[in-house]
Structure formats: C-alpha cells, structure tokens
Here is the input.
Amino acid sequence: MPNSRPMPVVAAGVSELRVKSKDGAYRAFYYAEPARGVIVFHALMKKTQQTPPLELELARKRLREVLDA
Here is the structure.
C-alpha cells in the first residue's frame, strides 16, 4: 500500500499520509500549494478500515478554515 494517496473525497488537491506502527494506524491529511507550501490540517488514529464520515467532515472544515485565513 502506498504511503500517500489522493483524498478527493475531502477536497481537490488533498492527500492522505499513511503511517503504520505497532501502536496502530495513523492518517494525516495535507494540502500542497506552491504559494503556501504543504499544509497538514488534520490527523487521526485509524480504528476501522474506512475513515469515519465525521473525521472527513472535520477535515473539510479545517481545510476551509486554513485556506480562508
């Protein structure tokens, strides 16, 4: 499985960084924009195969907040 993959379900241009450790699986959503660099705007510990809808909505909200600032 790749360490990073696009996450268009959050927003265009968003990717997910995947990290596995003996403690569990972690995800970080990031957005790369030449003018601003890389913006990491949400991270979570995975407890299920699918990312919970509430986590996706929180990620969308945080990205909007960062881009609108």
In short: The longest strand covers residues 24-33. The chain has one helix and four strands. The mean pLDDT is 93. Strands lie at 4-6, 14-21, 24-33, 37-46.
